[in-house]
Amino acid sequence: MKCSQEAVQKLAKRIREDVLDMTFHAGVEGGHIGGAFSAAEILAVLYGSELNIDFNDPSNPERDRFILSKGHVSIAHYAVLKECGFLSQDDLDSFEKNGSLFSTHETESIEHGIEITSGSLGYGLSVGIGIALAGKMKSKEYRTFVLLGDGECNEGCVWEAAMAAPKYNLDKLIAVIDKNGQQLDGFTRDVMPIHDIGKVFMGFGWNVIEIDGHDIAALQKAFRTRIEKVPTMVIANTIKSKGLPTIENKPGWHHARISEEQYIEFKQALEES
User: Fold this and answer.
1) What CATH number does the domain containing 164 carry?
2) How far is 175 from 116, CA to CA, in rounded Å?
3) What residues in the chain have per-residue pLDDT under 50?
4) What's the pLDDT at 131?
């Protein structure tokens, strides 16, 4: 898909609508709505204008790869995969149902556009590095994108991976941190702060670009930036639960169960946005 900026913005809105529906219909299982909403534009830009992928040929060896490292927001990934033709509405309706392939964390299914099985946070960057390194060794042109969360960066394995990418000159590796300032237990600054995360990655040898993670044009420009032999880290500053004014940036919405009253309220907010 190579959509206009206006179409990408509409795609982000549809992602949020799908996420809201899935979270509500999951009932007591709920969904990770806060981080899914903060990542909506990131996913919309990747799938709407950047990734070289084709749902008619999902295993093409020349395809770009997307690795969801912050695997608990699979719900947003399922939504954009549906919008791009990899999944059906029935697949989304099966979210969190017994026997469904589509649970809180993803299960690898290349035919559905899912590159890895997620679970424990922190290892997605390492997987992305391995995929990017394999591509370099085989002289492939595909790019590898990895989406992390800022809370996820508390994991030590993220920093081992951070050292490796510049070492192997992986300039077709683009990592993105959905920096919404929160994690399961509250604000990252209170749980385990990482002071100036951009400078930290810069110190490891990455090309670091810090932007508004809800700005379509800024995301597109960042994803298209390439410096020879240098991996790129995009620090995307976002707002948790973006698009739902009554709960934006409020702790407690990392994972949620939604009542019918809340569902109606949130649905109305999205329609008016």
Assistant:
1) 3.40.50.970
2) 16
3) none
4) 98
